[in-house]
Amino acid sequence: MSTAPQPAAENLGILLPGMGAVGSTVIAGVLAIRAGLGQPIGSLTQMGRIRLGKRTEKRNPLIQDVVPLTSLDGLVFGGWDIFGGDMYDACQTAKVLDGNLLDQIKDELQAIKPFPGAFDPNFVKRLNGTFMKQGTRREMAEEVRKDIQKFKATHGLERAVMVNCCSTEIYIEPSDVHMSVESFEAGLDADDKRISPAMVYAYAAIKEGVAYANGTPSLAADIPALETLAHEYGVPTGGKDFKTGQTLMKTVLAPMFKARMLGVKGWFSTNILGNRDGEVLDEPENFKSKEKTKLGVLDNILQPELHPELYGDLYHKVRINYYPPRGDDKEGWDNIDIVGWLGYPMQIKVDFLCRDSILAAPIVLDLALFLDFASRCGKKGIQEWLSFYWKSPITAPSVYPEHDLFVQLSKLKNNLRHMVGEDLITHLGVEYYEDQ
Ligand SMILES: NC(=O)c1ccc[n+]([C@@H]2O[C@H](COP(=O)([O-])OP(=O)(O)OC[C@H]3O[C@@H](n4cnc5c(N)ncnc54)[C@H](O)[C@@H]3O)[C@@H](O)[C@H]2O)c1
Q1: 359 lines ligand 1 (CB under 6 A)
Q2: Which of 123, 163, 119 is nearest to 289 (CA)?
Q3: Atom from ligand 1 closest to the CA of residue 129
Q4: pLDDT, tens only, 308-323
């Protein structure tokens, strides 16, 4: 059952642990759009429409006209980083946006400064932070909570959402300390090194009733302890790893191969990337986290266990190469070996010359607005209907994730219809022919 949503707050805080390339690009982007200097291209909440009722009714309003969302004018940004400076500095470091554009919003960018980050260099070996909290896990968690309270009080905010945009942490498996709220809190007290900074932020958000999304592949709110806590505190959560470039392509192409019963023998994906994210992912232990979220997609979509003759011996390889000259302008290159009628081989090459943070920024915005809406509808825990935005959508343990982009979009829109009390759309379509 859906609960009627509370109206959108006039002002909403968006808190970003990690105010690097993605974080600064979403902030500068919203400020620029507010100033009339650009358009929110790539954002479903700002530009997307939703069909309501039958096709004969021709009702296709903007999503934001049907779903009560805070307007861009009401958004207030804050966050944490392990390097000081303000958002103008962060944009200069990231080199994503044009200097002329940044100069026109310089004062506003300079007014946004991070709180010191909760960090442990063992989780991100390539970075030597200069602006960090000191103390145990418990002390860091309590400080992050105080930062959230201070941010809300300073800006007179009743509501806030957190979207994790920190560097990818090393790959870790959940262990006993992550299994229950009691063991996790005892671990915070004991400064247990298996509790990552990403978990510290997620814990603080949940305890403060702040909806939480994880834009990185790091293990965070997706541990049993924090899933339980999110239910106890009535906090919606989502993750993980923004689906922006190569995986976005994969989740469009692979469903097409399967829909047409075309075989796939091999899929080789490589990336060259020169930003700080690329540098961190050059470290094998950090890359492993990313590899895991990138690799899961094809098996889930193609279901080799159901179609062994088409996908049973698929060779899937993913590489990320740090190549500084490209900065944030990533090149994602795919070679796909497919098989058709009578086993004849064919090849497809995809060369996506993309801009990493330009693709990620609208996702941060949409997730923040939709998660706040979910929270106002009384939703808590994993929000699977937001799978559309994730490389590795978190689901209930009993179900496998949906990776097909258009299945995810249908799910997202049907959930929105459900939450605003509109009829669901099944695409059955027989009603148009019944009277003929
Ligand atoms: N851009 C994309 O297309 C994309 C897609 C999917 C996922 N991601 C993920 O989003 C994250 C951010 O990407 P980015 O390009 O902005 O990277 P970035 O390196 O530019 O920014 C990350 C920021 O996090 C900070 N940081 C690291 N650990 C921290 C901590 N514990 N507390 C506070 N700050 C911390 C770093 O100092 C840095 O400023 C990465 O994990 C990346 O893998 C990005």
Answers
A1: yes
A2: 123
A3: 37
A4: 999 999 999 999 899 9
CA atoms within 13 A on the CB side of 353: 1
Specify the fold of 246-353. Answer: Dihydrodipicolinate Reductase; domain 2 (3.30.360)
Distance 14 CA to ligand 1 centre (A): 16
Nearest partner of 101 among 185, 39, 165, 143, judged by Cα: 39
Per residue in 228-279, pLDDT tens? 999 999 999 999 999 998 999 999 999 999 999 999 999 999 999 888 888 8
Give 18 Cα–ligand 1 centroid separation in angstroms.
6
Atom of ligand 1 nearest to the CA of 17: 33
3.30.450.20, 3.60.15.10, 3.40.50.720, 3.90.1150.10: which CATH number matches 12-242+357-419?
3.40.50.720
Residue listed under structure tokens 């920190």: 166
Give the single-character DSSP code of 390: B
What pTM was computed for the model?
0.96
389 lines ligand 1 (CB under 6 A): no
Residues 52-82 pLDDT 10s: 999 999 999 999 999 999 999 999 999 999 9
Ligand 1 centroid from CA 354, angstroms = 17
